[in-house]
């Protein structure tokens, strides 16, 4: 990854100080080709969370950004007292994983979120109690507002979303590599008015996000540190991997994220 404003060295130092973005269990990032994804290594994406109904049905993803907060999509419509956050999960069909259950004490949706256009599709979930960090549960770093990611940068998205538009969600966490696409190219594909500054595009390379991945992470790695650059927002309804997926842009929304957390 190339940062033209916020340097790699500076980002790595900040990440080290904050203790974010460095998985204790290294992910498999070579040969990676969600739709047309692959099983993740258990525990290798320690910030990935599953948002579930009380009956255990997975409906959205999310990212742990510190001990008290999870970032997800506004469209997931998480409800206090009903939905729960599962951390440290890999195989949803297993009862032997050291997972943590958390309830949500507060849901804060971006005030300019549009259900019609999915602009500003982001929400912050304050957990009912601090998460106990472990080798399988740790936060991801947030992209600074000054980050500039070059088109073509290989980043990763993860989730338990459908592997085709008509199948059920997989039990094992999936991962796939998706190249960053420039806003100009993305607007050529989706239309000038659909892609806003608060969105970032990636994919169109043989794999895609799908239903159930919403709110999950788009992360890029530099010097061993993983940074959250996007949150899964929308894609073609058929989850066609020839089209790029669209993510809420963390760098563009970083100021709102910081202000919201500091005041709550």
Automatic annotation (TrEMBL):
- Its predominant location is secreted
Q: Supply the alphabetized keyword list.
A: Disulfide bond, Secreted, Signal
Please give the name of this protein. Answer: Chymotrypsin-like protease CTRL-1
Q: CDD domains under this entry?
A: Tryp_SPc
Cellular component GO terms held in the UniProt record: extracellular region
Compartment(s) of residence: Secreted
Q: Which GO terms describe its biological process?
A: proteolysis
Domain Peptidase S1 stretches: 34-262
Q: Provide a Gene Ontology MF annotation, just one.
A: serine-type endopeptidase activity
The reply to whether Secreted figures as a keyword in the UniProt entry is: yes
Which residues belong to the signal peptide in this entry? Answer: 1-19
């Amino acid at each position: 990854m190339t940062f033209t404003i916020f340097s790699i060295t500076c980002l790595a130092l900040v990440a080290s100080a904050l203790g974010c973005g460095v998985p204790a269990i290294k992910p498999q990032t070579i040969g990676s080709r969600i739709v047309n994804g692959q099983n993740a290594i258990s525990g290798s994406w320690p910030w990935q969370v599953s948002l579930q109904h009380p009956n255990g049905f997975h409906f959205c993803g999310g990212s742990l950004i510190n001990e008290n907060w999870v970032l997800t999509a506004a469209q997931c419509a998480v409800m206090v007292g009903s939905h729960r956050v599962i951390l440290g999960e890999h195989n949803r069909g297993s009862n032997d994983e050291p997972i943590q259950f958390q309830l949500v004490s507060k849901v804060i949706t971006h005030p300019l979120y549009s259900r019609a256009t999915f602009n500003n599709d982001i929400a912050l979930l304050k957990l009912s109690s601090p998460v106990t960090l472990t080798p399988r549960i740790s936060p991801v770093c947030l992209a600074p507002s000054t980050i500039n990611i070059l088109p073509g940068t290989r980043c990763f998205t993860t989730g338990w979303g459908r592997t085709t538009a008509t199948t059920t969600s997989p039990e094992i966490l999936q991962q796939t590599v998706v190249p960053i696409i420039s806003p100009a190219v993305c607007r050529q594909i989706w239309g000038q008015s659909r892609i806003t500054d608060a969105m970032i595009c990636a994919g169109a390379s043989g794999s895609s996000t799908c239903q159930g991945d919403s709110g999950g992470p788009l992360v890029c790695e530099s010097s061993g540190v993983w940074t959250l650059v996007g949150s899964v927002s929308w894609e073609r309804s058929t989850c066609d991997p020839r089209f790029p997926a669209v993510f809420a842009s963390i760098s563009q929304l970083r100021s709102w994220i910081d202000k919201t957390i500091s005041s709550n």
